[in-house]
Amino acid sequence: xRIILLPGMDGTGILFRPFVxxxxxxxxxxxxxxxxxxPADQVLSYGQLIEDVARRLPAQEEIILxxxxxxxxxxxxxxxxxxxxxxxxxxxxxxxPPAQGPYLAAPPRLMGLLMKxxxxxxxxxxxxxxxxxxxxxxxxxKEAISKVEGPVLTARMREITAxxxxxRALAMPCAYIQAGNDRLIASSHAKEIxxxxxxxxxxxxxxxxxxxxxxxxxxxxxxxxxxxxxx
Length: 231
Hints:
Layout: E1 2-6, H1 17-25, E2 32-35, H2 46-56, E3 63-67, H3 72-79, E4 94-95, H4 108-116, H5 121-127, H6 135-146, H7 150-162, E5 165-166, E6 174-179, H8 189-196, E7 200-205, H9 211-214, H10 216-230
Parallel strand pairs: 1-2, 1-3, 6-7
Antiparallel strand pairs: 4-5
């Protein structure tokens, strides 16, 4: 079995480093972990990224997708392609963009530009993380963002606010981590996740939007428990 991690909007996978270290501590030796990254210099739509990830998934191995933030729609689109024992009707409409918190209300171009400005650590902690987040974690964020071209970030911000993916119920067990103090995505987004994933395990961890980075030990613990329930 392989756990494949799909990154947030930076697409580099760099921000997974502390979390992966903690996650591997609690996994059986036969379970591997792989982090995928996205091109840092190419503007790609969600549709293009979905096909790019699909091509890189192992064909003859059981996998578990763990998607962070921006990659949620990618993981959903791939999971919804899996055959279902009882196909049933498709859900009405399309999966919609998540309700935004106050810090995602700015236009995508402005948000893309802001992310490329070298903001001080204290401000990043206030907006994206929290005071309990280590400075080392914030430094990882700065490193990741520095590797991605501005137009790519702007395009990904635009994708987040405008994607449309046909809704189809998922037949497999799923888990959803809700950051208890998320300032980017409204907590009401969990309602739509429940509608498309009947076998959903919801887990709330107190902390900011970047919960895997800000709380790597706790995140690895609860995800490890969920994964072990599947083995």
